[in-house]
Design a protein that fits this description.
By secondary structure, the protein is mainly alpha-helical. The protein has one domain. It has three helices and three strands. Strands 1-2-3 form a three-stranded antiparallel beta sheet, with no helix packed on it. It is globular. It starts with a strand and ends in an 8-residue tail after the last helix. The chain binds zinc ion (ZN).
Length: 90
């Protein structure tokens, strides 16, 4: 068990205001980018990779249109965001 707060999505690397995991426990927060709910698609690295592959295969759709508009206006780049994924979840 880790003592840490995870704000970077394990699936898509999105780093927003959400906290997905706290001290090793899922918060059930839903990522505004890929739509993953912590503990549903991201409990275990194989689940993470599976969900990520599915999400990218769909064209990497944003769950939240307002977050999408904001990030895209700031020059959002999918590959740059994916590079943000913590190494153990790649
Ligand atoms: Zn995500």
């Amino acid at each position: 068990m880790e003592n840490e707060t995870e704000t970077v999505c394990r699936v898509c690397g999105h780093d927003g205001y959400e906290v997905f995991w706290e001290d090793g426990w899922p918060t059930a927060e839903i990522c505004s980018c890929c739509g993953n709910e912590s503990d549903v698609g991201d409990n275990g690295v194989l689940g993470v990779r599976g969900y990520r592959g599915y999400w990218v295969g769909q064209g990497a759709p944003w769950r939240s249109p307002s977050a999408e508009r904001k990030r895209k206006s700031e020059g959002w780049d999918l590959l740059r965001q994916l590079a943000n994924i913590p190494p153990r979840w790649r």
